[in-house]
Amino acid sequence: MNIIEIKNLKKYFGEVKAVDDITFNVEKGEFFAFLGVNGAGKSTTISILCGEQKRTGGSVIVDGKDIDEAPAEIGKKLGVVFQNSVLDRSLSVRDNLKYRAALYRIYGKEFEDRLRELTALFGLKELLKRPVGKLSGGQRRRVDIARALVHSPEILILDEPTTGLDPQTRKSVWETVNAIRKVRGITVFLTTHYMEEAADADRVVILDGGKILADATPLELKNRYTGDFINLYGGKETEVRALGLAYEKVGEAVRIEVENTAAATELILKHPQLFTDYEIEKGKMDDVFLNVTGKRTE
Amino acid sequence: MTLKKSAPYPVPAEGVKDLQTLSMKTLSYLIARNCKVYFRDKGVFLVSLMAPLILLFLFVAFLGNVYRDSIRSVATGFPLTDELVESIAAGWLISSLLAVCAVTIAFTANTIMVQDRATGQAADFRVSPVPRSLVALGYFLSTFFVTAVICFVALGAGFVYIGIAGWYLTAADLLLTVADTLLLTLFGTALSSVVCHFLRSQGAVTGVQATVSAAYGFLCGAYMPIGNLATGLKNAIMFLPGTYGTGLLHSHLMGGAIGEVGEGLPAEAVTQIVKGMRDGFDCDLYFFGNAVPSWVCYLVLAIATALLVGVYVLLCARKRK
Question: Which ranges of B9-131 does DSSP label H, i.e. alpha helix?
């Protein structure tokens, strides 16, 4: 069942086509990734979905309701984690959650119950009284996510949530998001330009120049847009070169690109004396993105 | 990070409340949040609170003697006690101070609205189901509250200063001064809300605050009696509604002391000197030579405030692009 249905969505700023006739659906409970470089149209699409911007054309349906007809109803279903933290730095974590909850008319005992659950889920007990400005980047991001979930939305929108964060904090953010998905089964709509983040999604849409260039699961994308790779260990570069295979040196390994897994198997069976220490891997999302858009990511 | 996976996450309550309905409780939370953000920023809060007191000190230290001499020169030939001179000067200083602060502090208090735009908080409000009008009303009322608190602190300090200088205020003067301060605060809030609506960065709001702080005192007749200005400028200033608020404060904080001038002299002479002093210190205003009664001053200020609020409502109701 689709929870988001976007049809022929367009957003033009004069001559600039920020979003150019895109159509896609997001299934309920799905981890959906919107992949693209800066300026691809990701944030514009999110802004339209959240009712922040008007669209030039097309339709946006959330949980069966048109965004023009029931904006407030749809607002209740969305929880948004913005690229930059929108917490009040001078206020405590508790106050931030309290004032956010009030926007959804959650007060008093109802808020206290919600706070208890979020505190347990996000491990916020020690942080509740601390001003947000005194938290680490990772702690602040967790509070940001808790804030987006304070009204129990059905869709969690993560707009480049890990941009500018260090690897450990990024890991911590993803642990949090994965835990929420496991516990709650919430639909996650991620926009990112980090390929490895999109690789964990159920489905990926690649956007470039306001247009959708690819829409499939990560595995389908890898199968469609990249080959397989055999990493061969043991210093066998000379033998590989003698066979006339395309390869590159990656650390201690010789990385041979083959068309697909069947071709890899065939090659290994044909030269068993060569392939004594090796591994086969699928192409990475970076390769997919490069092949789809012709652009390298960060 | 410890994640307690066993914790049940709540499912949205059945029969979800109608979020479109204007909620007074949500409004009270918005106001509380804005005020808390403002007062928690100790730098901004202390500067706002100190500004009127610093201004009072500067007025007394640098302009006190100028006003005292000016009062004596207006009353040349009439007996005038030192206490009366001190009281009239104190009334002028405090009324000028309040007239300026009610507007300049409102611009500082409205920083929260601009700050929310700059930091992305405004976007967070927009994706929530809360109507934009409620968010805008929250900014308006919190600005009014913060400005009123600071103005009343200044007014309290002002009453103490006037008490030391010489107390000639009646209960009616006190009540009317409170009413003037509230009305001017409302005017300042409305004016700052309209101006700040167009600002998108902290830098812009700081620039506007600096300009307003520097210019408003002259434009509303607080720093210099309007009678001292050139005719053209005098007439131009009378088109600005803030002038009428300043005039009301001058009248209510100086009127009592001025009324005591000329005690023991013939009634005609007293009338003449009182009129001269009231005109000279803007207790009575003139629009192209015609006397403006107090009720007209209130009306002008109220209409200007209502118009500004109307503009603010229209600006806030504008559709998203």
Answer: 24-40, 42-58, 64-74, 82-109, 111-119, 121-127
8 Å CB contact of B12 and A151: yes
A75, A142, A152: residue with CB nearest B127: A75
Q: What is the pLDDT of residues B246-271, one digit of tens each?
A: 999 999 999 999 988 877 788 888 88
Taking CA–CA distances from A50, the nearest residue in chain B reads: B127
Distance from CA of A141 to the nearest CA of B (A): 12
Amino acid at the residue B57: F
pLDDT at B52: 79
A82 chain-B contacts, CB cut-off 8 A: 120, 123-124
Q: Give the closest residue to A185 by CA, choosing from A219, A159, A156, A160.
A: A156
> Which structural domain, as residue segments, surrounds residue A87?
2-221
Q: Which of A71, A138, A179 sits opposite B5 (nearest CB)?
A: A179
Mean pLDDT of chain B: 86
Q: Would you call B283 helix, strand, or coil by DSSP? A: coil
Give domain status of residue A293, yes or no: no
Highest mean pLDDT among A159-163, B15-19, B56-60, B103-107: B103-107
Listed residue (A171, A179, A108, A168) closest to A146, CA to CA = A179
What is the ipTM score, two decimals? 0.80
Q: How many domains does chain A have?
A: 2
* CB spacing of B129 vs A113 below 8 angstroms: no
Burial class, A263, CB count within 10 angstroms (exposed 0-12 / middle 13-18 / buried 19+): middle
Instruction: Give the whole-angstrom CA distance, residue B233 versus residue B240.
Output: 11
Q: What is the CATH number of the domain that holds A268?
A: 3.30.70
Residue A287 covered by a domain: no
CA distance from start to end of chain B: 41
Chain A residue numbers with beta carbons less than 8 Å from the beta carbon of B25 are: 102, 105, 107
Domain that holds residue B83: 39-317
Contact B120 A175 (CB under 8 A): no
In chain B, residues with a C-beta closer than 8 Å to the C-beta of A63 are none
A46 touches A35 (CB < 8 A): no
Answer yes or no: is pLDDT of B22 > 60. no
- Whole-angstrom distance, CA of residue B47 vs CA of residue A136: 29
Sheet holding A155-159, edge to edge: A78-81, A155-159, A187-192, A31-35, A203-208, A211-216
Looking up tokens 């023009």 gives A68
CA distance B52 to B159: 13
For the ranges A38-47, A143-152, A170-179, B273-282, which has the lowest average pLDDT?
A170-179
Q: Under an 8 A CB cutoff, do A84 and B119 touch? A: yes
Q: How far is CA B179 from CA A163, B95, B145, B250, B278, in A?
A: 52, 13, 15, 13, 20
Contact A175 B16 (CB under 8 A): no
